[in-house]
Amino acid sequence: MSLKDVAEESFMVKFGRPLFWSRLENSEEVDRVPGNIVHFARTKLIGRSNILPPGVSLLERRHNGLLAAIGTRILFEFDTSREESRTREMQLVEGHMRIVYSIPVDRQYIRSGYPSEPILAEAAAHEMNSEERPIINILSSFIDNGLIYKGDRGGLVARLILTQAYDKAIQTSHPQPWKYSQGVTVAAFLTALISEKYIEDVLNCTSNDGKTPLKEAFKNAYIRFTHFVQNGKDNKIDTDVALAGIVRGMALQITRNESIVDIMIPIALREDRLREEIMTGILIQVKDKAAIEAVDINADELHFFPPDCEGPRPYITIVMQLGLQTASDIRHFHELWSPSRVVTKQSHRTPQSMGNSLHPRYHINIRGCSGAVYGVVNNEDAYAKVVAPHNIIADHPKKSPRNLAALRRLKPVWQRNKQCSEWIGVSALQREQAGGGDEVLPVQAEGDGCPTTRMKS
Hints:
- This protein has 457 residues and is of the alpha/beta class.
- It is 38% helix and 11% strand.
- It has helices at 3-6, 9-12, 18-26, 33-46, 58-74, 83-95, 118-130, 135-144, 153-173, 186-193, 196-204, 214-217, 239-248, 299-302, 327-332, 350-354, 380-387, 401-409, 418-421; strands at residues 99-102, 111-113, 184-185, 222-223, 227-230, 250-253, 263-268, 279-287, 315-321, 341-343, 361-367.
- Residues 435-457 are annotated as: Disordered.
């Protein structure tokens, strides 16, 4: 079974619901159906063939169809605390192929999602790429409207960037009509992912042993993923999982804080019969906070490759530091680098951490979330808005120093600033806030006249 075999519609319909393979097997127009089965799946996904349910407009059905396509590919959760979100989730179950997994005992909401169905993911790819509006803008509006859970935004943005890079690589590597399930070379994927400014550095970077350039090590290697799936708790990622992933065209999202790796994209080292012996992967960590961190992803420590592996298999590690948006973020952490940058040099800890590893590692550190580093990021403000930290201070609509100082004085959260700590008089607790947020307000200081609380540093 080769990459070409697993990309055939007749193979992809074998996974998931029997709706698609039964239609293919029993059609009288066998010669025409393989080309039409994706169109049929797309029609079912976006609900085009459905009668409009009561109270649902054509525009709302259009939005639901796009939401279904995005959910099929990049994973998201509905915000079940909001009635509107629960209603929209049920609409996707009723008319847009979303599956109910479970209903909690209190029956207040449902647990639903899009499991791995390769033919439906192919259809979703066509739907997403037919949309004129940037997908990040659409995602941002869904989040603002309270439909999508505001949890792991960094992971959501990372999955979108990786998916769009894969789609772009398909479009630049193959003639139309595009078939997103057929896979692309690792070099084509990285060329789509990384900006022109840094792509040559990435392709020419060497592994921890300092020998072979990346483009040589992966010159015959392919990736194939049309959708993401959630990896189960305590389910170790390894090359067996990578094999299953490339067969179904899926990348894995690992449960947050369970592993140093957040995302795994499977790689087949050559276009050959698919088997564990030729599998490796791209191991990705996502950072959505504005802090520069040294991250050392070691496949040996993760037991990614089998212990009896005979020959070396190169692998790629990527750190996506999405939270580093502006120059002020960098200055805050006393760094001299530009706010957006791709670094391919190995960590200074590499010799100790890698030891005598059999498998060459190619490390890529991407700082920022802009077009300066990513080849698929055009609307930087929209990405920054989604990735930005969301809390009562960051979300306050009035951003002037005076208004922020007044808000901090109410102490919704405790921070090192004058508004929280002026009453104790300890200078170490009154650190100046970036952006002038420590403006002095013409009001009596809290604790004045109270000798038990007004202390001297």
